[in-house]
Write the structure tokens for this entry.
Amino acid sequence: METVERALAQHGPPVFVRKQIVHNSYVVDQLRQLGAVFVDSVEEVPEGGLVVFSAHGVAPAVRTGAAARSLRAIDATCPLVTKVHAEAKHYAAEGYTVVLVGHAGHEEVEGTMGEAPEAIVLVESVADAECLEVEDPDRVAYITQTTLSVDETREIVAALRRRFPSLRGPKKEDICYATTNRQRAVKELVPHVQLLLVLGSANSSNSQRLVEVASAGGVAAHLIETARRLEERWLDGVETVGVTSGASAPEVLVEDLCTWFRSRGVAEIRELSPAEENVFFKLPAEVRRRSAA
């Protein structure tokens, strides 16, 4: 998000962004008002234009296409996604069948598979893992999308290990720490609430997973983009509500929802002790260099 804001400040609008910079409609709308133009492909960017690649990463073919149009590119790929791309290339170069655990059609999955399409196979479920056939069962490695259900991914990997005892995988799991922390927090909330509200957009994978975690714990859960999307009928007979948000949902949306409850007489709003998140990622070199200059 800050990458797009800096690019707009440094170069002026329009700054083109391939796909949504993050999967949150509120963020996209705010950036659009500042002059960002969101496109589905680099072919929609005028030749020589400035394009930002989204946090979900892109396949090498997209970079090639941007270069062919003489586009100036700023890569805002999340470093955790870049790590997965590097793992995919590494295992493929060593002759492994690379199993990517993820959701078909997700932009992150499309970008990762583009790194070694001849070597990567997509597995979405335990059932997929159980029926997977590979050329050499002794040379199989796995990587994962960064925004998956921690529990479901663990089950899929366990199935892969049963099928392929020599299975290799990342030294540190690929699922994003922000995704993991939020799922853990929801598990802590579930025993104490009758309803969970998740602030996030429908195309946000990690937000959808929070709804699933609550549902698996027996608690009704709804995904809403803003407080205005809350339906009061959901609150009938409910005394305690949990509130959480997807990783890319701005804090202002959480604050607005809390304000909504206070305006209706809710006197007590308590914050669950948050996990400490002190990871820092540098902005892309292109916007850092310009700011320094």
